[in-house]
C-alpha cells in the first residue's frame, strides 16, 4: 500500500525502546513513534502510554524516500490540554485573570493621541 504524509492509519505496537515505539502498519511496513510524539507533555516511561500488542491509530508524520523509514505520531491525533505557546500557570499578562484584554486600549488611546498632537504642536512653535 502507498502511504502519504498526514494519513491516519491503524497499527499494532510491535516493540518498545527507550526512544520510542515501533508500530506495524501492515505485514510489510513498520514505523516508529518517537517518544516526543507519543503524547503531550513529559513521558517518563513509554509503557505508561503504549504496550506491546496494542492496536492504535497513528498519523504518518514523515516518510524517508531513501530508507523507506516512516515516522509516526500518536500525539497529533490528541487534543492538547493547553495551547503550546501559552503559559500553563495562567499569568495575568495575557488578560485571563484580570479580564482586561484589549479593552484598556480604548481608554488609553485618546490620551496617547492628545500627547502626540501636543508634541507635534510644541515642535512646530
From TrEMBL:
Keyword set, alphabetical order: Ribonucleoprotein, Ribosomal protein
InterPro entries recorded: NA-bd_OB-fold (IPR012340), Ribos_protein_bS1-like (IPR050437), S1_domain (IPR003029)
Molecular function as annotated in GO: mRNA binding; structural constituent of ribosome
GO cellular component, as recorded: cytoplasm; ribonucleoprotein complex; ribosome
Boundaries of every S1 motif domain copy: 6-75
Swiss-Prot/TrEMBL GO biological process terms: translation
Keyword Ribosomal protein: yes
Family assignment from sequence similarity: Belongs to the bacterial ribosomal protein bS1 family.
Protein name: General stress protein 13
Organism from which the protein derives: Alkalibacterium kapii
The encoding gene: yugI
